[in-house]
Structure formats: structure tokens, C-alpha cells
Amino acid sequence: MEFREITIKDREWMSGKFREDNKKACEFSFASNFLWKKIYPLRAAVAYGCVILKFVYEDDITYAFPIGNGDKRKALEKILLHEQVNGNRVKISGIVEEEKEMVNSWYPGHFILKTNRDNSDYIYRTQDLSSLSGKKYHGKRNHIARFKDGNNWSYEKITKENTAECIQMNHIWKKKRVDKWDEMMQEEYDVVKEALLYFEELGLRGGLLRKNGEVVAFTLGEPLSDDTFVVHFEKAFPEVQGAYPMINQQFVLAECQDYEYVNREEDTGDEGLRKAKLSYHPVMLLDKYTALQKG
Q1: Measuring CA to CA, which of 24, 70, 251, 255 is 20 to 30 A from 263?
Q2: Within 10 A of 33 (CB to CB), how many other CB atoms are there?
Q3: Is the pTM of this model over 0.90?
């Protein structure tokens, strides 16, 4: 297999392959892979009508399960042979339940499959995030009411005309955290900036909030499957009360109404992020398996 770095020119055909699988898992979109390709050095190849993605995660060479409606079994066999030549055990991540069954059926006893709660996707009903109705969302509604005090706010779609303001807001967000800044935060900062710079080329959708004319929050996402929209990034000034729940609700109202579910990605084991994501009451935690070839 010949692996190469993906470019913007690959968006149309690769997005088509992702759509063939129609998966709810957050990493299975072209934009996600394009934006993180430098952080997790990512390369792509084609085998038996499937896209093969290879990247480096936690210092290990890792593959995604073959993508698309080609011959996945033969494509997986190709991966195994490719790594066998190099004397390496194969590691495959992002495996959903039906793919786990394929692996166990095709290669019984050949792989150890495990899940990691830190990598489970939070999936919500669009209606729940839109209405925030019921006792369990009482706190969210209160915070939103405080944000609306004074009626000095507005919501607008992100376009080429206002991306520079979002980039500036992201920079200010960074400066406010200079005392606890680390490598992972810098990586996300760089990825968010690139997402804004390539906003239209990647087919992303975005929304921003203004308070007294200034951008205080923004979010970016895209359609993921027939019934699911994924939110990749969400930034808000935490000192602006209600900015986070407000941008969440307004963006879902503006961009996600054609989809039954909203995927708000993983918490990566961050306790604060986990608490925040659980507070929106997901209807599903989508587990994803990692398969490691036995030695």
C-alpha cells in the first residue's frame, strides 16, 4: 500500500467514503482527519475499495478500521500483511460495535479488543439540546436567561467575513490561560485556528455569539451521518455567564434541526469536561474499541 498525506483536494472523494459507512463516531469525517493530521501524523491509502488511515497515537502506529463499502475483510488482511513485513503487531482504533463483530468473526482469538471510557462519544437528542426543557435542564435555562439580560447579544453564522474575529477571540482565550498553558492546549489552539482558516474549504458550519458587539463564543461542526451532526469545537469566555449553554443551544437551533442526534465528541478523561458533557444528559455514550493483534 502506498500511503500519503491528505490534502484539501481529497475532501470530496474521501467524504464520500465516510458517508458510505454512515457512522456516528466523531473521528470519521474528512475535516476531523485533515485538521489533526499533523498532531497524529496521518497518512491515507486505498485498498480493495476502502480508505486505509494510518496514524501515530501514543507513540504507536495505529490504523482505523477500513472505511467505505469496498471489501473490508481483504483491506484488513492487507493491513495485517503490511505490518507483518515490518514485524509489527497491528493496532486498530475507533472500532464500533458492528465492526467489533466483524473482527471477531474474521479473526477469532486473533485480537484483544478493549474500550476506554475516555474515548466514548457523547450523543444527544437534537430536540433536548434545542428546547432544554424539563427539570434536569433548569440550571442551563437560568444561565441562558442571565446571558440574555440587557438584550445586548446576537447570534450569527460564521462566514469568511467574521472568521478573523473568531481567530482573535481564540487568541484572547489562550492569553487568559497563559499560567496553565500546556502542549495539548497549544495543539487544540492550532487546530481550531486552522479550522477557521479553512472553514469553507472543509465544508464546516459555525456560529458565534456577540455580547455588546464583541465575540464571546463560537462553535464549529459538520454533518456526520444521515441522522447525526458532530460539534468539533466550542469556545466561550467562562467569565461571561451563560455563554457556553447559549452558544450550544443557538448553534443547535440554527444548524442541527435536520438531524436527530448531535455528537459532542469525547471528554478524553478530563474531569471538568466530563462533568460538563454529562450535565447535558446524553442519550448514548458511543463506545469505540481498540483492537491489538496478539503476539
Answers
A1: 70
A2: 22
A3: yes
